[in-house]
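I hope you will forgive my troubling you with a question about protein structure. I set the record out below, with my sincere thanks for your time.
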Amino acid sequence: MAERQTQTTGSSSSSSIEKTFKQVVTPIEEFLHQETSSGILLMICVAAALVIANSPFYPVYDTILHTKFTIGTEKYYISQSIQHWINDGLMALFFFVIGLEVKREILIGELSNLKQAILPIGAAVGGMVVPAGFYLVVNPSGPAANGWGIPMATDIAFAVGIVALLGSRVPKPLVAMLLALAIVDDIGAILVIALFYTDTVHLGALLFSGFCFLLLVGTNLAGVRSPLPYGVIGFIFWLAMLKSGIHATLVGVLTAFTVPARSTVSGHMFSEAMTDLLKKFQDQIEESSDSRMLNVLRNSKKQALLQSIENGVHRMESPLQRMEHVLHGWVSFTIVPLFALANAGIPIDFGRLGEILLQPVTIGVIAGLLLGKVVGIYSFSWVIVKLKLGNLPLGVTLSQIFGIGLLAGIGFTMSIFIGTLAFESQPEALLNAKIGILFASLSAGILGYIWLYKATSR
Protein backbone atom coordinates (compact mmCIF):
# COMPACT_ATOMS: atom_id res chain seq x y z
CA MET A 1 0.00 0.00 0.00
CA ALA A 2 2.76 2.41 1.01
CA GLU A 3 4.70 1.45 -2.12
CA ARG A 4 1.64 2.21 -4.29
CA GLN A 5 1.23 5.61 -2.61
CA THR A 6 4.92 6.32 -3.19
CA GLN A 7 4.57 5.42 -6.85
CA THR A 8 1.50 7.65 -7.18
CA THR A 9 3.24 10.55 -5.47
CA GLY A 10 6.33 10.05 -7.56
CA SER A 11 4.26 9.94 -10.74
CA SER A 12 2.45 13.15 -9.74
CA SER A 13 5.74 14.86 -8.86
CA SER A 14 7.32 13.72 -12.12
CA SER A 15 4.33 15.04 -14.09
CA SER A 16 4.55 18.37 -12.28
CA ILE A 17 8.30 18.67 -12.92
CA GLU A 18 7.85 17.73 -16.58
CA LYS A 19 5.19 20.41 -16.95
CA THR A 20 7.50 22.99 -15.36
CA PHE A 21 10.40 22.24 -17.71
CA LYS A 22 8.18 22.18 -20.79
CA GLN A 23 6.65 25.54 -19.96
CA VAL A 24 8.57 28.20 -21.89
CA VAL A 25 7.35 31.70 -21.08
CA THR A 26 8.60 34.75 -22.97
CA PRO A 27 9.55 37.90 -20.98
CA ILE A 28 6.48 39.76 -22.28
CA GLU A 29 4.16 36.87 -21.29
CA GLU A 30 5.68 36.75 -17.81
CA PHE A 31 5.34 40.55 -17.53
CA LEU A 32 1.67 40.45 -18.55
CA HIS A 33 0.91 37.58 -16.18
CA GLN A 34 2.48 39.40 -13.24
CA GLU A 35 0.81 42.72 -14.11
CA THR A 36 -2.57 40.99 -14.36
CA SER A 37 -2.17 39.26 -11.00
CA SER A 38 -0.80 42.40 -9.32
CA GLY A 39 -3.70 44.39 -10.75
CA ILE A 40 -6.14 42.08 -8.97
CA LEU A 41 -4.13 42.33 -5.73
CA LEU A 42 -4.05 46.11 -6.15
CA MET A 43 -7.85 46.23 -6.39
CA ILE A 44 -8.11 44.20 -3.17
CA CYS A 45 -5.68 46.55 -1.37
CA VAL A 46 -7.54 49.65 -2.54
CA ALA A 47 -10.83 48.19 -1.32
CA ALA A 48 -9.24 47.19 2.02
CA ALA A 49 -7.73 50.66 2.53
CA LEU A 50 -11.08 52.33 1.80
CA VAL A 51 -12.93 50.00 4.19
CA ILE A 52 -10.38 50.59 6.99
CA ALA A 53 -10.40 54.37 6.45
CA ASN A 54 -14.18 54.46 6.83
CA SER A 55 -14.36 52.19 9.86
CA PRO A 56 -13.62 52.53 13.60
CA PHE A 57 -10.07 51.27 12.85
CA TYR A 58 -9.09 54.47 11.00
CA PRO A 59 -7.31 56.10 14.01
CA VAL A 60 -5.07 53.01 14.36
CA TYR A 61 -4.41 52.98 10.59
CA ASP A 62 -3.56 56.71 10.61
CA THR A 63 -1.30 56.38 13.67
CA ILE A 64 0.69 53.53 12.09
CA LEU A 65 1.23 55.48 8.85
CA HIS A 66 2.49 58.56 10.71
CA THR A 67 4.76 56.66 13.12
CA LYS A 68 8.37 57.86 12.74
CA PHE A 69 11.01 55.35 11.67
CA THR A 70 14.68 56.35 11.92
CA ILE A 71 17.81 54.85 10.34
CA GLY A 72 21.41 56.02 10.74
CA THR A 73 23.71 57.15 13.54
CA GLU A 74 23.21 59.84 16.16
CA LYS A 75 24.87 62.39 13.89
CA TYR A 76 23.79 61.19 10.44
CA TYR A 77 20.28 59.86 10.22
CA ILE A 78 17.01 59.97 8.29
CA SER A 79 13.76 60.08 10.24
CA GLN A 80 10.53 59.78 8.27
CA SER A 81 7.02 58.49 8.83
CA ILE A 82 6.23 54.99 7.61
CA GLN A 83 4.07 56.50 4.86
CA HIS A 84 7.04 58.61 3.69
CA TRP A 85 9.35 55.58 3.73
CA ILE A 86 6.89 53.80 1.45
CA ASN A 87 6.40 56.78 -0.86
CA ASP A 88 10.02 57.98 -1.01
CA GLY A 89 11.97 54.81 -0.25
CA LEU A 90 10.19 51.71 -1.51
CA MET A 91 8.78 53.57 -4.52
CA ALA A 92 12.37 54.24 -5.64
CA LEU A 93 12.54 50.47 -6.33
CA PHE A 94 9.25 50.78 -8.24
CA PHE A 95 10.85 53.44 -10.45
CA PHE A 96 14.01 51.34 -10.76
CA VAL A 97 11.99 48.50 -12.29
CA ILE A 98 10.20 51.01 -14.55
CA GLY A 99 13.65 52.21 -15.66
CA LEU A 100 14.69 48.65 -16.48
CA GLU A 101 11.49 48.17 -18.51
CA VAL A 102 12.04 51.46 -20.34
CA LYS A 103 15.64 50.52 -21.23
CA ARG A 104 14.53 47.09 -22.48
CA GLU A 105 11.76 48.63 -24.62
CA ILE A 106 14.19 51.15 -26.13
CA LEU A 107 16.74 48.44 -26.93
CA ILE A 108 14.56 45.58 -28.21
CA GLY A 109 10.87 46.38 -27.68
CA GLU A 110 8.16 48.49 -29.25
CA LEU A 111 10.30 51.63 -28.90
CA SER A 112 13.41 50.21 -30.61
CA ASN A 113 12.24 51.01 -34.13
CA LEU A 114 11.45 54.68 -34.87
CA LYS A 115 8.69 53.95 -37.40
CA GLN A 116 7.13 51.47 -35.01
CA ALA A 117 7.59 53.72 -31.99
CA ILE A 118 6.06 56.91 -33.42
CA LEU A 119 2.47 55.83 -32.79
CA PRO A 120 2.78 54.85 -29.08
CA ILE A 121 5.07 57.84 -28.40
CA GLY A 122 2.68 60.25 -30.11
CA ALA A 123 -0.35 58.69 -28.40
CA ALA A 124 1.38 58.91 -25.01
CA VAL A 125 2.31 62.57 -25.57
CA GLY A 126 -1.34 63.31 -26.42
CA GLY A 127 -2.36 61.34 -23.34
CA MET A 128 -0.20 63.59 -21.16
CA VAL A 129 -0.59 67.06 -22.70
CA VAL A 130 -4.38 67.05 -23.22
CA PRO A 131 -5.30 65.80 -19.69
CA ALA A 132 -3.03 68.47 -18.15
CA GLY A 133 -4.78 71.03 -20.36
CA PHE A 134 -8.22 69.82 -19.25
CA TYR A 135 -7.17 70.16 -15.61
CA LEU A 136 -5.80 73.68 -16.11
CA VAL A 137 -9.00 74.81 -17.84
CA VAL A 138 -10.84 74.02 -14.59
CA ASN A 139 -7.99 75.19 -12.29
CA PRO A 140 -6.14 77.92 -14.22
CA SER A 141 -4.49 79.60 -11.22
CA GLY A 142 -3.98 79.52 -7.48
CA PRO A 143 -2.74 76.61 -5.30
CA ALA A 144 -5.13 74.18 -7.05
CA ALA A 145 -3.30 74.68 -10.37
CA ASN A 146 -0.32 72.77 -8.90
CA GLY A 147 -2.19 69.50 -9.49
CA TRP A 148 -1.98 69.68 -13.29
CA GLY A 149 0.38 66.67 -13.38
CA ILE A 150 -2.08 64.32 -11.62
CA PRO A 151 -4.18 63.26 -14.67
CA MET A 152 -1.10 62.71 -16.88
CA ALA A 153 -0.34 59.22 -15.52
CA THR A 154 -1.61 55.73 -16.39
CA ASP A 155 -1.60 52.75 -14.01
CA ILE A 156 -0.32 49.88 -16.14
CA ALA A 157 -1.22 47.14 -13.61
CA PHE A 158 -4.89 48.11 -13.52
CA ALA A 159 -5.08 48.69 -17.29
CA VAL A 160 -3.49 45.32 -18.12
CA GLY A 161 -5.73 43.65 -15.52
CA ILE A 162 -8.83 44.95 -17.33
CA VAL A 163 -7.45 43.83 -20.71
CA ALA A 164 -6.81 40.35 -19.26
CA LEU A 165 -10.51 40.04 -18.42
CA LEU A 166 -11.24 40.25 -22.16
CA GLY A 167 -8.94 37.29 -22.86
CA SER A 168 -8.49 36.32 -26.52
CA ARG A 169 -10.78 39.10 -27.74
CA VAL A 170 -7.88 41.57 -27.52
CA PRO A 171 -5.19 41.18 -30.22
CA LYS A 172 -1.64 40.89 -28.88
CA PRO A 173 -0.38 43.88 -30.91
CA LEU A 174 -2.96 46.04 -29.11
CA VAL A 175 -1.62 44.86 -25.74
CA ALA A 176 1.94 45.65 -26.89
CA MET A 177 0.70 49.10 -27.93
CA LEU A 178 -0.80 49.64 -24.47
CA LEU A 179 2.46 48.59 -22.77
CA ALA A 180 4.61 50.86 -24.96
CA LEU A 181 2.21 53.76 -24.44
CA ALA A 182 2.21 53.25 -20.66
CA ILE A 183 6.02 53.10 -20.56
CA VAL A 184 6.36 56.40 -22.48
CA ASP A 185 3.70 57.77 -20.13
CA ASP A 186 5.86 56.71 -17.17
CA ILE A 187 8.88 58.51 -18.65
CA GLY A 188 6.79 61.68 -18.97
CA ALA A 189 5.51 61.37 -15.39
CA ILE A 190 9.05 60.89 -14.05
CA LEU A 191 10.26 64.01 -15.90
CA VAL A 192 7.31 65.99 -14.57
CA ILE A 193 8.10 64.90 -10.99
CA ALA A 194 11.80 65.77 -11.38
CA LEU A 195 11.30 69.14 -13.10
CA PHE A 196 8.11 70.58 -11.63
CA TYR A 197 7.57 69.02 -8.19
CA THR A 198 10.83 70.08 -6.58
CA ASP A 199 10.78 72.99 -4.11
CA THR A 200 14.39 73.78 -3.20
CA VAL A 201 17.69 72.43 -4.51
CA HIS A 202 20.84 71.99 -2.41
CA LEU A 203 23.74 72.33 -4.83
CA GLY A 204 26.34 70.35 -2.84
CA ALA A 205 24.11 67.27 -2.51
CA LEU A 206 23.08 67.59 -6.16
CA LEU A 207 26.72 67.64 -7.30
CA PHE A 208 27.44 64.55 -5.20
CA SER A 209 24.38 62.90 -6.81
CA GLY A 210 25.93 63.64 -10.21
CA PHE A 211 29.20 62.04 -9.05
CA CYS A 212 27.28 58.90 -7.97
CA PHE A 213 25.62 58.68 -11.39
CA LEU A 214 29.00 59.01 -13.15
CA LEU A 215 30.34 56.28 -10.85
CA LEU A 216 27.47 54.01 -11.93
CA VAL A 217 28.22 54.74 -15.60
CA GLY A 218 31.89 53.95 -14.95
CA THR A 219 30.92 50.70 -13.26
CA ASN A 220 29.00 49.73 -16.40
CA LEU A 221 31.86 50.69 -18.72
CA ALA A 222 34.28 48.69 -16.55
CA GLY A 223 32.22 45.59 -17.32
CA VAL A 224 30.96 44.98 -13.78
CA ARG A 225 27.96 42.65 -13.95
CA SER A 226 27.31 41.86 -10.29
CA PRO A 227 24.12 43.54 -8.97
CA LEU A 228 25.82 44.41 -5.63
CA PRO A 229 27.88 47.48 -6.75
CA TYR A 230 24.87 48.94 -8.56
CA GLY A 231 22.75 48.41 -5.43
CA VAL A 232 25.30 49.97 -3.03
CA ILE A 233 26.11 52.98 -5.24
CA GLY A 234 22.41 53.35 -6.08
CA PHE A 235 21.55 53.53 -2.37
CA ILE A 236 24.17 56.26 -1.78
CA PHE A 237 22.85 58.01 -4.91
CA TRP A 238 19.32 57.87 -3.43
CA LEU A 239 20.48 59.37 -0.11
CA ALA A 240 22.29 62.22 -1.91
CA MET A 241 19.31 62.96 -4.13
CA LEU A 242 17.01 62.90 -1.08
CA LYS A 243 19.21 65.57 0.55
CA SER A 244 19.40 67.61 -2.67
CA GLY A 245 15.67 68.42 -2.65
CA ILE A 246 14.92 66.76 -6.02
CA HIS A 247 12.53 63.88 -5.62
CA ALA A 248 14.59 60.74 -5.04
CA THR A 249 12.44 58.48 -7.26
CA LEU A 250 14.44 59.85 -10.21
CA VAL A 251 17.40 57.85 -8.85
CA GLY A 252 15.59 54.58 -9.56
CA VAL A 253 15.31 55.35 -13.28
CA LEU A 254 18.84 56.77 -13.67
CA THR A 255 20.36 53.78 -11.86
CA ALA A 256 18.38 51.37 -14.06
CA PHE A 257 19.78 53.02 -17.19
CA THR A 258 23.33 52.14 -16.07
CA VAL A 259 22.63 48.41 -15.59
CA PRO A 260 24.34 46.35 -18.35
CA ALA A 261 21.98 44.93 -20.95
CA ARG A 262 24.42 42.78 -22.96
CA SER A 263 25.50 39.16 -22.58
CA THR A 264 29.19 38.32 -22.16
CA VAL A 265 29.05 35.29 -24.46
CA SER A 266 27.61 34.67 -27.91
CA GLY A 267 24.60 32.44 -28.46
CA HIS A 268 26.68 29.84 -30.34
CA MET A 269 29.31 29.69 -27.61
CA PHE A 270 26.61 29.34 -24.94
CA SER A 271 24.83 26.59 -26.87
CA GLU A 272 28.02 24.59 -27.39
CA ALA A 273 29.08 24.94 -23.74
CA MET A 274 25.64 23.93 -22.44
CA THR A 275 25.47 20.94 -24.79
CA ASP A 276 28.88 19.75 -23.56
CA LEU A 277 27.96 20.24 -19.86
CA LEU A 278 24.60 18.50 -20.25
CA LYS A 279 26.27 15.54 -22.00
CA LYS A 280 28.71 15.22 -19.08
CA PHE A 281 25.81 15.44 -16.65
CA GLN A 282 23.97 12.69 -18.56
CA ASP A 283 27.11 10.52 -18.39
CA GLN A 284 27.17 10.97 -14.61
CA ILE A 285 23.51 9.92 -14.39
CA GLU A 286 24.21 6.74 -16.36
CA GLU A 287 27.23 5.90 -14.21
CA SER A 288 25.26 6.38 -10.97
CA SER A 289 22.96 3.65 -9.70
CA ASP A 290 21.29 5.96 -7.14
CA SER A 291 18.02 7.20 -8.71
CA ARG A 292 16.79 9.06 -5.65
CA MET A 293 16.40 12.85 -5.48
CA LEU A 294 19.50 13.09 -3.23
CA ASN A 295 21.81 11.68 -5.90
CA VAL A 296 23.09 15.19 -6.83
CA LEU A 297 23.99 15.85 -3.21
CA ARG A 298 25.90 12.55 -3.09
CA ASN A 299 27.89 13.25 -6.26
CA SER A 300 30.47 16.08 -6.24
CA LYS A 301 30.94 15.91 -10.03
CA LYS A 302 27.22 16.52 -10.58
CA GLN A 303 27.31 19.46 -8.18
CA ALA A 304 30.26 20.98 -10.07
CA LEU A 305 28.51 20.50 -13.42
CA LEU A 306 25.32 22.11 -12.13
CA GLN A 307 27.32 25.07 -10.82
CA SER A 308 29.00 25.45 -14.22
CA ILE A 309 25.60 25.37 -15.94
CA GLU A 310 24.29 28.04 -13.56
CA ASN A 311 27.37 30.24 -14.14
CA GLY A 312 26.94 29.85 -17.90
CA VAL A 313 23.28 30.88 -17.73
CA HIS A 314 24.21 33.99 -15.69
CA ARG A 315 26.85 34.95 -18.24
CA MET A 316 24.37 34.54 -21.10
CA GLU A 317 21.58 36.37 -19.28
CA SER A 318 22.10 40.14 -19.04
CA PRO A 319 22.10 41.79 -15.58
CA LEU A 320 19.18 43.96 -16.75
CA GLN A 321 17.10 40.91 -17.59
CA ARG A 322 18.05 39.13 -14.35
CA MET A 323 17.30 42.16 -12.13
CA GLU A 324 14.00 42.83 -13.84
CA HIS A 325 13.00 39.19 -13.44
CA VAL A 326 13.91 39.12 -9.73
CA LEU A 327 12.53 42.53 -8.72
CA HIS A 328 9.36 42.71 -10.79
CA GLY A 329 7.51 40.29 -8.56
CA TRP A 330 8.58 42.11 -5.38
CA VAL A 331 7.47 45.45 -6.81
CA SER A 332 4.18 44.15 -8.23
CA PHE A 333 3.15 42.05 -5.24
CA THR A 334 4.68 43.94 -2.30
CA ILE A 335 5.66 47.55 -2.95
CA VAL A 336 2.72 48.69 -5.11
CA PRO A 337 0.10 47.00 -2.87
CA LEU A 338 1.78 48.61 0.19
CA PHE A 339 1.62 51.97 -1.58
CA ALA A 340 -2.10 51.40 -2.21
CA LEU A 341 -2.73 50.47 1.43
CA ALA A 342 -0.83 53.56 2.62
CA ASN A 343 -2.39 56.07 0.21
CA ALA A 344 -5.86 54.85 -0.81
CA GLY A 345 -7.25 55.02 2.72
CA ILE A 346 -9.54 58.01 2.20
CA PRO A 347 -12.06 58.79 4.95
CA ILE A 348 -15.13 59.79 2.94
CA ASP A 349 -17.89 61.92 4.40
CA PHE A 350 -20.69 60.48 2.28
CA GLY A 351 -22.93 63.35 3.32
CA ARG A 352 -20.47 65.72 1.59
CA LEU A 353 -19.61 63.43 -1.34
CA GLY A 354 -21.76 65.40 -3.78
CA GLU A 355 -20.08 68.62 -2.66
CA ILE A 356 -16.58 67.09 -2.97
CA LEU A 357 -17.29 65.86 -6.52
CA LEU A 358 -18.12 69.46 -7.48
CA GLN A 359 -14.83 70.89 -6.14
CA PRO A 360 -12.54 72.34 -8.88
CA VAL A 361 -9.66 69.96 -8.03
CA THR A 362 -11.95 66.91 -8.19
CA ILE A 363 -13.57 68.05 -11.45
CA GLY A 364 -10.15 68.81 -12.98
CA VAL A 365 -8.79 65.36 -12.11
CA ILE A 366 -11.91 63.56 -13.39
CA ALA A 367 -12.00 65.65 -16.58
CA GLY A 368 -8.29 65.04 -17.20
CA LEU A 369 -8.34 61.28 -16.63
CA LEU A 370 -11.76 60.39 -17.99
CA LEU A 371 -11.94 62.79 -20.95
CA GLY A 372 -8.46 64.20 -21.51
CA LYS A 373 -6.77 60.80 -21.76
CA VAL A 374 -9.06 59.35 -24.40
CA VAL A 375 -9.26 62.61 -26.39
CA GLY A 376 -5.47 63.03 -26.34
CA ILE A 377 -4.56 59.43 -27.17
CA TYR A 378 -7.20 58.99 -29.88
CA SER A 379 -6.73 62.38 -31.58
CA PHE A 380 -2.92 62.16 -31.70
CA SER A 381 -3.15 58.54 -32.97
CA TRP A 382 -5.68 59.56 -35.64
CA VAL A 383 -3.43 62.39 -36.90
CA ILE A 384 -0.32 60.15 -36.97
CA VAL A 385 -2.14 57.41 -38.92
CA LYS A 386 -3.90 59.79 -41.34
CA LEU A 387 -0.67 61.68 -42.09
CA LYS A 388 1.07 58.29 -42.50
CA LEU A 389 3.74 59.19 -39.98
CA GLY A 390 3.21 55.81 -38.35
CA ASN A 391 1.13 52.68 -38.88
CA LEU A 392 -1.43 50.91 -36.75
CA PRO A 393 -0.19 47.52 -35.45
CA LEU A 394 -1.42 44.53 -37.47
CA GLY A 395 -5.06 43.72 -36.63
CA VAL A 396 -5.56 46.90 -34.57
CA THR A 397 -8.20 49.51 -35.43
CA LEU A 398 -8.64 53.15 -34.41
CA SER A 399 -11.80 52.12 -32.57
CA GLN A 400 -9.68 49.81 -30.39
CA ILE A 401 -7.21 52.66 -29.81
CA PHE A 402 -10.17 54.65 -28.47
CA GLY A 403 -10.80 51.82 -25.99
CA ILE A 404 -7.14 51.85 -24.95
CA GLY A 405 -7.49 55.61 -24.44
CA LEU A 406 -10.36 54.98 -22.05
CA LEU A 407 -8.34 52.41 -20.07
CA ALA A 408 -5.42 54.86 -19.90
CA GLY A 409 -7.71 56.98 -17.74
CA ILE A 410 -6.98 54.53 -14.90
CA GLY A 411 -4.32 56.64 -13.24
CA PHE A 412 -4.25 55.20 -9.77
CA THR A 413 -0.67 54.57 -8.52
CA MET A 414 1.26 57.32 -10.32
CA SER A 415 -1.62 59.83 -10.10
CA ILE A 416 -1.87 59.46 -6.32
CA PHE A 417 1.92 59.66 -6.09
CA ILE A 418 1.98 62.98 -8.00
CA GLY A 419 -1.03 64.17 -5.98
CA THR A 420 0.87 63.65 -2.70
CA LEU A 421 3.68 65.82 -4.10
CA ALA A 422 1.39 68.50 -5.54
CA PHE A 423 -0.76 68.93 -2.42
CA GLU A 424 1.62 67.86 0.35
CA SER A 425 0.67 70.90 2.47
CA GLN A 426 -2.99 71.03 1.34
CA PRO A 427 -4.81 68.05 2.91
CA GLU A 428 -8.26 69.15 1.69
CA ALA A 429 -7.06 69.47 -1.91
CA LEU A 430 -5.26 66.10 -1.65
CA LEU A 431 -8.47 64.46 -0.40
CA ASN A 432 -10.42 65.94 -3.33
CA ALA A 433 -7.73 64.80 -5.78
CA LYS A 434 -7.74 61.22 -4.42
CA ILE A 435 -11.53 60.99 -4.65
CA GLY A 436 -11.34 62.32 -8.21
CA ILE A 437 -8.68 59.70 -9.07
CA LEU A 438 -10.76 56.86 -7.61
CA PHE A 439 -13.96 57.99 -9.35
CA ALA A 440 -12.24 58.54 -12.72
CA SER A 441 -10.23 55.30 -12.54
CA LEU A 442 -13.30 53.20 -11.71
CA SER A 443 -15.33 54.84 -14.49
CA ALA A 444 -12.47 54.53 -17.02
CA GLY A 445 -12.05 50.82 -16.22
CA ILE A 446 -15.76 50.07 -16.71
CA LEU A 447 -16.12 52.16 -19.88
CA GLY A 448 -12.85 50.85 -21.35
CA TYR A 449 -13.91 47.23 -20.77
CA ILE A 450 -17.33 47.78 -22.38
CA TRP A 451 -15.86 49.65 -25.36
CA LEU A 452 -13.14 47.07 -26.08
CA TYR A 453 -15.66 44.24 -25.68
CA LYS A 454 -17.76 45.84 -28.41
CA ALA A 455 -14.77 46.81 -30.59
CA THR A 456 -13.15 43.35 -30.59
CA SER A 457 -14.30 39.88 -31.58
CA ARG A 458 -13.57 36.53 -30.01
About this structure: The beta strands are 68-72, 77-81. The CA atoms of residues 144 and 361 lie 6 Å apart. The chain has two domains: 27-197+247-262+318-455, 265-316.
